[in-house]
Amino acid sequence: EAGVAQSPRYKIIEKRQSVAFWCNPISGHATLYWYQQILGQGPKLLIQFQNNGVVDDSQLPKDRFSAERLKGVDSTLKIQPAKLEDSAVYLCASTLTSGGLETQYFGPGTRLLVL
Amino acid sequence: LAKTTQPISMDSYEGQEVNITCSHNNIATNDYITWYQQFPSQGPRFIIQGYKTKVTNEVASLFIPADRKSSTLSLPRVSLSDTAVYYCLVGNSGYALNFGKGTSLLVTP
Which residues in chain A are contacts of B92 at CB distance < 8 A? Predict the structure, then answer.
C-alpha cells in the first residue's frame, strides 16, 4: 500500500514570496491533516479536512496560509507571503475516517526555509 | 484537549528496557492514550494506543494505571535504531491529536 506522498521535499524561498505544498493521502482516506513542525517542537495542527470540507482550521494563520482539498483527495497548502518564522517542516497526514482514535499516517514532510 | 507532560530527554544503553512516563491529569473519560515515534527527517509513526490497564504489541507495551492520569511507554531491549522522539498524545474520536514536544531518546552502545 502506497503511503502519504508529499512534494516538494525541500523548498528555499525569500521572505514575502509565495510557496505551495502538495499532499496525496493514502487511497480511500477521508481525513487529511496539515501540520507545521518547527525545529525542536512537536507537530502543530494547521488544518483538518474531512473529504473536501474543513473540520478544524482554528490554528491556521488565515492572513497568509490557505489550504484546499477540492475533490476530497489530494490537497495543497499555500503560504503567501512567507515570513521568516514560517521556516519549518510541513507534514501531511491522513486517516481512514475522522478522529483521534484512528492511526494517522504521515508523509515525509516538506522542509521549508525562508530567507 | 488534555495537556500532557513528559520528560524532555532520556538516555539509555543498548539492550536496556526504557520506560517513558507521560502525565495527563486532565484526561477525559472518553480519551485514549496514543504514542508516536519520530525519526529525524521523517513524519511521526504510530506505536501503540490504549485506554486502560496494559496493551502490548510487537514493538512496545503501554501501562495505564486505574486513575488514567499517567501512562508509561515501555520499550524492551532498545537498540541504536530506537533513538528517536517519542510523543504521548491524549484525545478521542472527533478531535485531531495534540502533539507536545515529546521525549528525545538517545540510545548509545
Answer: 99-101
Fold annotation for B9-108: Immunoglobulin-like (2.60.40)
Structural domains in chain A (count): 1
Using CA coordinates, name the residue in chain A closest to B88: A42
Q: Locate B84 and state its grid cell.
A: 528517536
In this structure, what C-alpha cell is assigned to residue B9?
530527554
pLDDT digits (tens, 9 = 90+) for A35-57: 999 999 999 999 999 988 998 89
Beta-carbon separation of B96 and A41 below 8 A: no
Cα four-point dihedral sign A111, A113, B4, B10: positive
Query: How confident is the model over A64-82, as pLDDT tens digits?
Result: 999 999 888 999 999 999 9
Cross-chain CB nearest to B96 (options A45, A105, A108): A45
